[in-house]
Amino acid sequence: MELKKIEHITLHLIVFGTIAIIGVLARQTVLHYGWDEFSSYLILVVCSIIMGAIYLNLQMVFSQILSPTIEKCFMRFECYRNKAVVVEVPAVNSELAESAINSEPIISEPEPEIEIETTSDITEEVSTPLCSELNEDVAELPNEEATPSTINNTFIEESNQPSEYEILRAHAMAEKERASQEKLNKVIAYTKQTLVSYLDETALNRLCGYVTEYYLSDALPKIEPIKIDSQLKTIDIMHFGWNIGKAFGKPRLQTATFIKRIFAHTFRDSEISTIERKMSHTESECRIKLDKKIALAES
Predict the structure, then answer these.
(1) Of 117, 155, 233, 283, which residue is most buried, by most CB within 10 angstroms?
(2) Is 261 in contact with 299 (CB distance < 8 Å)?
(3) Mean pLDDT in each 10-residue stretch from start to end of the chain (299 residues)?
């Protein structure tokens, strides 16, 4: 190996020396022709670079193209093939020897096994108390968190309980609903008692349904006209409408429109404005009177 290195160094020195000589000769040549010093040194550098590049290119061409071609040509001769085999065998043996020498120290050292065993024992001894401590900590966690969870459950139960305002409001709404239902029942009972003699059962029940819808809804219900006995005059129906409208707290105009639609045959010659104006008028001859009790049912 050292011989080869010396050969390579010698070859490179010869090549670089030759390149330097060629550069110096080129410099002397340009000086001879009257060039200045700077230009002559520039020619020296340029020539050296060019010659170096030419050498490297020739070396690459020789190693990649010419050398394999020449080797193939020489391999045709038996004496050259035998010489090549003899040269390759010692090289292989030397590589095996070097690998064996490098592997001997690794095999002869048994110390890592002892270190592994000692470390494993230490880790086992250390891991045992650590595991026991972790188990104790895990066992203690539920006891520590029991109190906060109990507090949270108590808080949730308390928050689910209605407040005083909600209780009072619920009672007020229930009382209002009860009073409203009581008022409706009273008006329905008044309707049945007043008109039972002048309507058949089907018409009376339908009228009670219209009265209920009129009370529960702000808009007028869909109405199919009802024909009442001719014994009742328009003033009687007006008084009936005023009584239930006053009890429900409905406007006079809305009540007048309501009875106009229900008793369309009776009020066929009357306008809604006329009905609204005369609803509370009293005449000497009428069967249905203004009922103050029904009128006061709102309060």
Answers:
(1) 233
(2) no
(3) 78 86 88 86 89 86 79 71 53 50 45 43 43 48 51 61 87 90 91 92 93 88 89 91 90 93 92 90 82 59
